[in-house]
Amino acid sequence: MSALLEIANVTKTFPGVVANENISITVAAGEIVALLGENGAGKSTLVKSVFGMVRPDSGEIRIKGEIITPGDTSGAIARGVGMVHQHFQLVPVMTVTENIILGSEPKRGIFINMKAARAEVLALSEKYGLEVDPDAFVEDLPVGTQQRIEILKALRKDVDLLILDEPTAVLTPQETDELLQVMRNLAASGVGVLFITHKLREVMAVADRVVVLRNGRVAGSTSPKETDEEGLAQLMVGRNVVLQVEKGDAKPAAATLVIRELHVNDDRKHLAVNGLNLEVRAGEIVGVAGVEGNGQRELVEAICGMRPRISGEILVAGEATPDMHPHKIHSMGVSHIPEDREKHGLVTTYSIEDNLVLNQFDRAPFAKGWIRNMAALEENATRLVKEFDIRTPSISTTAGALSGGNKQKVVVARELSQDTRVVVAAQPTRGVDVGSIEFIHNQLIAARDAGAAVLLVSAELDEILSLADRVAVMFGGKIVAILEAKEAERVLVGRLMAGLSA
Amino acid sequence: MTRFLSFKWILTFILIAITGYLYSKDGVITTSVVATAVIFGLPLALAAMVGIMCERTGIVNIGIEGTLLFSSFIGFFVASSTNNGVFGIISAITAGVVTGLFLAFMSISWKMDQIIAGTIINILATGLTSFLYTQGRMAPTTFPIDIPFFSSIPFFGQVLFMHGPLVYFGLVVIFSLYVALYHTSWGLRSRAVGEHPGSADTAGVSVFRLRYLNVALAGAVGGLAGAYLSLELVGSWDRGFTAGKGFTALALMIFGRWNPMGALAAAMFFGLTQAVTNQLMFSDVAHIPEQFVNMLPYVLTIVVLAISAGKVRPPAAEGLQYEKEKA
Question: Higher pLDDT residue, B301 or A209?
Answer without folding.
Answer: A209
